[in-house]
Automatic annotation (TrEMBL):
Name of the molecule in the record: 2-deoxy-D-gluconate 3-dehydrogenase
Organism the protein comes from: Marinomonas pontica
The UniProt record lists the keyword Oxidoreductase: yes
Family membership: Belongs to the short-chain dehydrogenases/reductases (SDR) family.
Entry keyword set: Oxidoreductase
Length: 249
């Protein structure tokens, strides 16, 4: 049920961090990978190819609307079809709400929610045209559930990710498309570098995680394969927290 042999998975932002971990997990389960990156994903390409699967990179800035069509066309030219979409690319901007700029609002919202929606729309059109089933997995956050501090546009965007996951599941389940999300807890990647560098915040965060450690890209492997595979065929519109127990506190 967890076998992805013969499937094609698009993973946005997979040159590093959680995207790299998920691309590798999907390849280990048998999928060929289409990476979508603005930075060179050489390390990910190498790791995926070592599993025996293929890796095709599309160089694109996901915050630009014209990327969507090109990404899907390139994926289909490379592998003939698409089956799985992981909307992972995301950014964060930190500042007091009183000083927060329009640019920090727009850049985060454009990538984290607008691009995620239109990428999903383009993907769903292809799945329906192919007449196959498909799986969309959106990457949410603890700030899909909680308010956070000094990250207003990130909280707004990730709360919206959880909402749109339910909304798209409602419309597309009838087309055989499962739309779900993963909400990572506090994971050791570039995204949390500033937090981990702040001794007080880092200690506060770690003290609240029942698993008593930061998460890693490997912790995403099981949940991403589950949501990309037959094993989750009747799971629609749900967000799975992969958080070391953070939300249970
Ligand atoms: P990361 O290491 O900063 O990775 C983010 C990825 O998105 C990178 O590959 C980055 O590419 C890519 N990206 C950023 N802007 C892009 C753009 N305009 N076009 C294409 N790609 C772009 O952070 P991460 O922690 O792995 O984050 C992955 C996802 O998990 C994000 O959606 C993040 O919000 C979410 N998340 C992370 C945590 C955590 O604790 N780390 C917790 C909850 C949710 P570059 O390397 O070129 O910047």
């Amino acid at each position: 049920m967890f076998d992805l042999t013969g499937k094609v998975a698009i993973v946005t932002g997979c040159n590093t961090g959680l995207g790299q971990g998920m691309a590798l997990a999907l390849a280990n389960a048998g999928a060929d990978i289409v990476g979508v990156n603005r930075s060179n994903p050489a390390e990910t390409a190498d790791l995926v190819q070592k599993t025996g699967r293929k890796f095709h990179n599309v160089n694109a800035d996901m915050s630009k609307m014209d990327s969507v069509d090109r990404i899907l066309k390139e994926a289909i030219t490379a592998f003939g079809k698409v089956d799985i979409l992981v909307n992972n690319a995301g950014i964060i901007r930190r500042n007091d709400a009183l000083d927060f700029t329009e640019q920090d609002w727009d850049e985060v919202m454009n990538l984290n929610i607008k691009a995620l929606f239109f990428m999903s729309q383009g993907f769903a059109k292809h799945i329906i045209a192919q007449g196959t089933s498909g799986n969309i997995i959106n990457i949410a956050s603890m700030l899909s559930y909680q308010g956070g501090i000094r990250v207003p546009s990130y909280t707004a965007s990730k709360s919206a990710v959880m909402g749109i996951t339910k909304s798209l599941a409602n419309e597309w389940a009838k087309h055989g498309i499962n739309v779900n999300a993963i909400a990572p807890g506090y994971m050791a990647t570039n995204n949390t570098e500033a937090l981990r560098a702040d001794e007080n915040r880092s200690e506060e965060i770690l003290g609240r995680i029942p698993a008593a450690r930061w998460g890693t890209p490997k912790d995403m492997a099981g949940p991403i394969v589950f949501l990309a595979s037959e094993a989750s065929r009747y799971v629609h519109g749900y967000t799975i927290a992969v958080d070391g127990g953070w939300l249970a506190r």
